[in-house]
Amino acid sequence: FNESGTITLKNTIIANNSPGGDCSGSIASTGHNLDSDGTCSLGATGDISSQLPLLGPLQNNGGPTFTHALLEGSPAIDAADDANCPSADQRGIPRPQEAACDIGAFER
């Protein structure tokens, strides 16, 4: 992810990329991101590094495109910044569903 240039991330999951890791190049975190292998050098408020996001398979979970569901126990659940959370997830499900928005495109 990102060979050159700078990518700015907020409330984003970057996980399970291969070969070589999740990130290379310059990553600017504005907080509440999850990186599964620590290669993104995340360090902003709410960032989670080197933890598996516990994602389900890419499949039809409803909505116009396939998504990875957040599985029970995912560190992404209720961990997003609500101030910058879209009002609906990728499937059109209203956010938040529980105490806070979930990190990523899927609201559990």
Using brief descriptors, characterize the structure shown.
two-stranded parallel ribbon, 108 residues, 7 strands, mainly beta, 3-stranded parallel β-sheet, globular, single chain
Structural account:
It is built from no helices and 7 strands. The two termini are 25 Å apart. It is globular, with a radius of gyration of 13 Å. The protein is mainly β. The model has no long low-confidence stretch (mean pLDDT 93).
What is the element layout, followed by pairings?
Elements: E1 6-9, E2 13-14, E3 26-29, E4 34-35, E5 48-49, E6 55-59, E7 67-70
Q: TL;DR?
A:
This protein is mostly beta strands and 108 residues long. It is built from no helices and seven strands.
